[in-house]
Amino acid sequence: MAQLLNGNEVVTPTDADSALAKESGRRLATHLGHANGLRLEVKTDTTSEELVLPASALRLLLRLLTEMGQGNAVTLTPIRAELTTQQAADLLNVSRPHVVKLLDEGAIPSRKVGSHRRVQLEDLLTYKQDLQARRHAALDELQALSQDLDMGY
Q1: Lateral strand order in the sheet of 82-83
Q2: pTM for the structure as a whole
Q3: Is residue 62 classed exposed, middle or buried when 0-12, 13-18 and 19+ CB atoms within 10 A define those classes?
Q4: CB-neighbour burial class of residue 106 (10 A; exposed 0-12, middle 13-18, buried 19+)
């Protein structure tokens, strides 16, 4: 069992797990439209119990089964998790020195643990969403300018 630096377990499915996840995900997907959640019956050799899953948990479970069905390793990271600068760089698809520069500039909140910086996943995702919005706004402006200048695109 592999673990990330933040302690989260990474689950790599076997071929049998992958096949079972694919079939379970396919069958579970037909029930995704239930806004009030889904009732599941959990049975073991000695007990039977009914559970109700909220719709958000059902979507997350379906995503997990889909990834496992494709043979991908998966992990679940809480939104309040703290990431290293390398993990942050991997998530943003940039270099670690670039992330350090963003942290030093205050573009992304962080804290220091000894000499190491830590970034909350929630803050990183907020930055990523804002960056995406700024990119789309810039593209919209370029599109409007090219139409105003009748550039033929």
Answers
A1: 82-83, 116-120, 111-113
A2: 0.62
A3: middle
A4: exposed
The predicted-structure confidence for 116-138, as pLDDT tens digits, reads as follows 999 999 999 999 999 999 999 99
Q: What letter would DSSP give residue 109?
A: -
Cα–chain center distance at 103: 21
Which tokens belong to 138? 């810039």
Taking the chain (153 residues) in consecutive chunks of 10 residues, what is each chunk's mean pLDDT? 58 89 89 75 91 86 92 84 91 94 95 92 94 94 88 71
Q: Which residue has the tokens 């496992």?
A: 68
Tokens of 87: 């993990």
Maximum pairwise Cα distance, the chain: 74
Question: Cβ(83)–Cβ(124) under 8 Å?
Answer: yes
Q: Which residue bears the tokens 């929630």?
A: 122
Q: Are 38 and 58 in contact (CB under 8 A)?
A: yes
Task: State the residue for tokens 């600068």.
Answer: 85
Three-state DSSP at 126 gives: helix
Say how many C-beta atoms besides its own lie within 10 A of residue 12's C-beta: 14
**Residue 100's closest CA among 82, 117, 114?**
117
